[in-house]
Amino acid sequence: MNRALFVPTAMEFHENLQELAVREGLKGRKVARTVESFTWNITILKGQADLLKRAKSEVQENLKQIQFAALTCNLCKGGAAGVAGDRTPPRRSLEAIPERQVAEGEGPKRVGK
Fold first, then answer.
1. How many domains does the chain have?
2. What are phi and psi of 36, to 5 degrees?
3. Which of 12, 50, 88, 112 is 20 to 30 Å apart from 28, CA to CA?
4. In sequence order, what are the residues at sequence separation of 6 or more whose Cβ sits closer than 8 angstroms to the Cβ of residue 14?
């Protein structure tokens, strides 16, 4: 939920809460506790909205880094140098990436001894 829309709506409701509680039959201390409880809940919700906003921006940054890594490793269209036939179209879902068949003798090269 967009905080810009949420906060004014909550504040408007908060202004009318005491009147609404009295209209519903609450009296004295119960009205005060209702208003206090609502205020506390709104404070918690604002904090949660801030945490979600921060998490969303972190996820977006992580996705950018993954995209750049995929481009650098030639894992998607428009990546670094490579044979055009080896490129696969970018995937938009989280389905499994099929393994490629490796021809005999094309395995990893060993260096050393």
1. 1
2. -60, -45
3. 12
4. 35, 38, 39, 42
Q: Is residue 76 part of a domain?
A: yes
Whether 20 maps to a domain, the answer reads yes
Can you tell me the distance from the alpha carbon of 75 to that of 2, in angstroms, rounded to the nearest whole number? 35
Check if the beta carbon of residue 69 is closer than 8 Å to that of residue 80.
no
Asked if residue 102 belongs to a domain, the reply is no
- DSSP string over 58-113: HHHHHHHHHHHHHHHTT-STT-SS--GGG--PPP-S-PPPPPPP--TT-SPPP---
Q: What is the pTM of this model?
A: 0.50
What span, in angstroms and rounded, lies between the C-alpha atoms of 10 and 38?
9
Cα–Cα distance between 51 and 56 in angstroms, integer? 9
Residue 59 belongs to domain spanning = 3-80
What pLDDT digit, counting tens, does each position of 79-113 carry?
Answer: 444 444 455 555 566 666 677 776 666 655 555 54
